């Protein structure tokens, strides 16, 4: 299940996101609690750009409500309608159980239902697990690259 991100979620998420392996393809290092609280505060406050919307959710297991990851979408309005750039991350102990695919699919379906016609994700070319999630979520490789990552896009 997806629950809107709150600053208070940092307490639970610092453990979920604390594994260095999550940064293999995206770089950086896990944030400490204060860093994650600050990041979540900014995300919850929203984009300073008027035509851009930041949407962030915590992925929680249905049976016990345990936080296991996040999904996010940055939705921008431009000359060609609304476009979303999406991302997902599931903590290492909960990977390879279908949670990322289910959450990403729910996000793509929800965005489509909101009239977002262009939905894309940027995925490192060696991140085969994220490529599989993208495929299950209805995204396809486009052949485009942005900063060394492949662009995957929903084709409706």
Helix amount: 25-40%
Question: What is the CA-based Rg, rounded?
Answer: 15 Å
- Main β-sheet, in a few words? 7 strands, mixed
Average pLDDT, rounded to a whole number, is 93
Descriptive account of the structure:
The longest helix is centred in the last third of the chain and has 15 residues, at 99-113. The protein has 4 helices and 7 strands, in the order βααβββαβαββ. With 156 residues, the protein is of the alpha+beta class. Helix 3 links the parallel strand 4 (81-90) and strand 5 (118-123).
From the structure above, extract its key features.
156 residues; seven-stranded mixed sheet; globular; single chain; alpha+beta; 4 helices
Summary of the model, kept short:
The chain has 156 residues and is α+β, with helices and mostly antiparallel strands.
Layout of helices and strands:
Blueprint: E1 2-4, H1 10-16, H2 33-45, E2 52-60, E3 67-78, E4 81-90, H3 99-113, E5 118-123, H4 128-136, E6 139-146, E7 149-154
Parallel strand pairs: 4-5
Antiparallel strand pairs: 1-2, 2-3, 3-4, 5-7, 6-7
Helix pairs in contact: 1-2, 3-4
């Amino acid at each position: 299940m997806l629950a809107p991100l709150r600053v208070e979620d940092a307490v639970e998420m610092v453990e979920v996101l604390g594994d260095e392996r999550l940064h293999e393809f995206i770089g950086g290092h896990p944030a400490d609690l204060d860093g994650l609280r600050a990041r979540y505060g900014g995300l919850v406050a929203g984009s300073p750009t008027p035509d851009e919307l930041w949407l962030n959710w915590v992925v929680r297991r249905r049976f016990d409500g345990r936080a296991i990851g996040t999904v996010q979408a940055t939705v921008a309005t431009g000359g060609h309608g609304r476009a979303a750039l999406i991302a997902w991350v599931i903590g290492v102990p909960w990977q390879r159980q279908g949670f990322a695919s289910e959450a990403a699919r729910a996000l793509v379906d929800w965005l489509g239902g909101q009239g977002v016609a262009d939905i894309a994700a940027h995925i490192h070319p060696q991140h085969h697990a994220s490529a599989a999630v993208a495929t299950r979520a209805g995204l396809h490789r486009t052949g485009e690259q942005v900063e060394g990552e492949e662009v995957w896009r929903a084709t409706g």
